[in-house]
Amino acid sequence: MVKINFLIIAAAAFIPLVMGFLWYNPKTFGTAWMKASGVTPETATGKGMNMGLVFVLTYLCSFFAGFIIQFLVIHQFSVGSVLMNEPGIMEKGSEMNNYLTDFMSKYGDRFRTFKHGALHGTMGGLFLVTPIIAVNAMFERKGFKYIAINGGFWIVNMALMGGVICAFS
After folding, report:
1. What is the DSSP-derived secondary structure letter of residue 5?
2. Is the pTM value of this prediction over 0.90?
3. Relative to the CA of 125, which of 64, 84, 146, 162 has its CA 20 to 30 Å away?
4. Is residue 83 within 8 Å of 132, Cβ to Cβ?
């Protein structure tokens, strides 16, 4: 069976913090994002906010996202989920356990590359996260630029996180 690698997820959870520093910098998309979101330079730099808490919670949320991303990018998790209720699956030496062990020894490393993880991470960012951002943005009366900047941020992050998690888990 595929095991969850919490250390790799924890490492990948730093990606949105680093990318946020780059993406929302005034020299990249920061100024456009502030205008599109209605944020002022004072509020963007954290005046009146506990930025330490913001960064800790951002990391925690990114860890949770990484935990779910692994199921999008590592196909071998699907095999375990399909067979999890089969009698004897966890009993060493049972017919089902032997089947799963044999299957994983043959196919356990298939599609486990950075490139493949980045592909599925991109798909998750494009077809899962960006539509959620778009729905919220429409109700908040934000424009296309707001959706593009924030959706693009998560597409890139999920691609990088997916690549790291798939290749190194």
Report:
1. -
2. yes
3. 84
4. no
Q: CB of 83 within 8 A of CB of 98? A: no
Does residue 93 sit within a domain?
no
DSSP state of 3: P
DSSP state for residue 49 in the 8-state scheme: S
State the Cα–Cα distance between residues 42 and 23, nearest whole angstrom: 18
Question: What is the domain count for the chain?
Answer: 1
Per residue in 80-104, pLDDT (tens digit) is: 889 989 999 999 999 999 999 999 9
- E strand or H helix that includes residue 33: helix 30-37
Cβ pair 162, 65 in contact under 8 A: no
Tokens of 29: 């998309």
What is the C-alpha separation between 162 and 82, in angstroms, rounded? Answer: 22
**Sequence-separated contacts (24+) of 28-35 with Cβ below 8 Å:** 29/149, 29/152, 29/153, 32/145, 32/149, 33/146, 33/149, 33/150, 35/145
Question: In the chain, at which residue ranges do the beta strands (DSSP E only) sit?
Answer: none
Residues 135, 137, 141, 145, CA torsion sign:
negative
**The two three-digit tokens of residue 25, written as one number:** 């910098």
In a domain, 148, yes or no: yes
Asked, for residue 146, whether it belongs to a domain, the answer is yes
